[in-house]
Amino acid sequence: MEHLITKDSLKIFKDNKEYLLNDSIKLLGFNNSTKILKGFKEHKFTTGILYLQPSTYIAKKTLCPMSIVAGCKDPCLKGSGRLGMTKSQMAMTRRTIQYLKDPDSFKERLRQEILKGEKNNYCIRLNGTSDIDWSDLIESLPNIQFYDYSKVLKRIIKNQIPNYHLTYSASFNNTMSINFIKEAVRSGVNTAIALNTKETEGEFKRPDCLTIDGVVHSLISMDRHDLRFLDPDGAIGTLIRKGSNKIQRSLDRLTPYNFFATPELLGRLA
Q1: Ordered strands of the 145-150 beta sheet
Q2: Whether 226 contacts 36, CB under 8 Å
Q3: What interhelical angle do 86-101 and 103-116 show, nearest 10?
Q4: What are 122-153's pLDDT values in tens digits?
């Protein structure tokens, strides 16, 4: 394992080897977050999500190839909600180590688990906290609806798998990231923009429209549910920032660039 995981992770592995190599524990969580439950209540979809440790938290080779460019490594969802709990963190670590140790075996276990849970109104999101290309697995399950958010724009544009819906996860971390957003919109790619606000007193409100390259686009709320494959083709949506406090959001507004969008950064798309 030494060549696959970081030095810090190696100690975790040695101290918890029996648990981390236990392949009898299920890989997917179903309907296990507030936002996912919204999709179940509103559209009756059962959603299974795979959560791994993102970027280089465990793996020597990043599981999120655009995390540095996009500036999302630190504010990743791994620290928010139920994922911030020690038990959940260890479960994410277990899955990640098992994936790194034997990707083919891991995918086969995952495929069997997906098939076993299949029912009406059923969907799977494999990149809950990673950005891995799962195309081979998804193509082997053509009757299952898959979806993901991704920051790898080329992968989204090239995707031709009928049962795999991808939404571009926008970033305002630098000029390159902002240009990627413009390219995504020009290409008709569904795009999600995370806003640096919770709309509390004194904070900016979620906009209803946005000018990109001189064209005004209507925005949808992507907080109503997580079922992105139900969005219209080419939809552009906004998400309120999770796992933050007002002071942190205020400080981030002072930076010239940020993963999370402010009114000033949104203006750079015009």
Answers
A1: 29-30, 46-49, 122-125, 145-150, 164-169, 191-195, 236-240, 220-221
A2: yes
A3: 120
A4: 999 999 999 999 999 999 999 999 999 999 99
Number of neighbouring beta carbons within 10 Å of residue 198: 13
pLDDT digits (tens, 9 = 90+) for 79-127: 444 444 588 889 999 999 999 999 999 999 999 999 999 999 999 999 9
Tokens for 62, please give them: 């990043």
Report residue 170 as tokens: 């926008």
Give the model confidence (pLDDT) of 155-192 as tens digits. 999 999 999 999 999 999 999 999 999 999 999 999 99
Burial class (CB in 10 A: 0-12, 13-18, 19+), 200: exposed
Q: Long-range contacts of range 150-155, CB-CB < 8 Å, 24 or more positions apart?
A: 151/64, 151/66, 151/67, 151/69, 151/70, 151/72, 152/65, 152/66, 153/180, 153/183, 153/184, 153/189
